[in-house]
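BUG: 3D viewer hangs when loading the predicted structure for this chain

Environment: internal workstation, default settings.
Expected: structure renders.
Actual: progress bar stalls at 90%.

Input used:
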Amino acid sequence: MKTALSFEKLLDQWEIDCKLDSSDLAAETMRTAVMHAKYLRHITYAKLLKSARKDKYDKLRLKKWEYFNGRLTKTEMDELGWSYDPFNGGSKPMKNDMNAYLDTDKDLAELKAKLMMDQTTIELIEEIINTIRWRHSSIKNILESKKFDAGY
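Structure tokens produced before the viewer hung:
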């Protein structure tokens, strides 16, 4: 699967793509469909990446829950590279407090930050696609302005 572009690269591409050449509006009209297809591809990849990462997060969260609740074998902990004592000599927290451990776990926090960036990227692409959808209005406004300037 092709990977989604980074947020910064998308912004760089959009900075170039968003410009309208008012001297060749026919070409700009045709370019709209090409840009729409391009950003649809980007949003598809971004959504697939987010979905795969969410699945990975959910599986890791379950594995961490099992770890914090003492349900992993030593072999599993060795394979994962985790210490045998998740609380470093402290007592096991009560059930109510388990979410606090999961929410602050370094591995889970890293994946959650990536998921948040994935969501931000998807929202950016949705805004770009929405702008492309209404690009015809900008083209029409330029045409109207040219007509006005020409005295029509």
